[in-house]
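Meet my pick.
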Amino acid sequence: MQRIYEPENLMEAELLLGMLASEGIEACLQGRDLIGGTGELPALGLLGLAVGNEQAQRARELIDAYNGASPMAGDEPDSFPYVLDC
């Protein structure tokens, strides 16, 4: 197993776990149980996504594509231009 990415928060971690699973990549979230200790523990580096060695490169490519994505023009709601409504 390789730790390939440190999500900013639990929501991003769950989103990425789902995205990787939809691509057939089994990933695990390390540090999920440490979130409750924020304040007592350092705030950064608690969460980490880990995948098997043979899937690490593909998982990194998918996460890089996720991080590089931007909303398509016209996807914004009329009342909030430039804000993507998920």
